[in-house]
TrEMBL record:
Composition bias, Basic and acidic residues: 72-90
Protein name: Transcription factor zinc-finger domain-containing protein
Source organism: Cellulomonas xylanilytica
Annotated region described as Disordered, given as residue ranges: 50-90
Compositional bias per record (Pro residues), positions renumbered to this chain: 56-70
Stretches assigned to the Transcription factor zinc-finger domain: 6-44
Amino acid sequence: MNPLVCPKCGSDMRAYERNGVTIDQCTGCRGIFLDRGELEKLTDAEASYYGSRPAPAAPAPAQYPAPAPARYPDDRYRDDDRYRGGDRDDYYKKKKKKRSFLDDLFD
């Protein structure tokens, strides 16, 4: 059998077997090459190895942290009578009309 030649550097390659898979390794550049059948054996072995373990859980989606609670209550309108409801400011009250003598007749 003719020795295999490395496609990268042209050196001779040696073949060895590990766990039922034949691996071709270059003696010059130390590159590893697999035949198609050997690659399929590796992928089948990997699938059976990881198939026995439970699938890893998907990471939780990233969320923004909850806003921090206010350290002080919002009391900027506490002292302002305009925001309390009702008409308490005398300056803005409706002014009463002067009553005439005819108003008493028509009431």
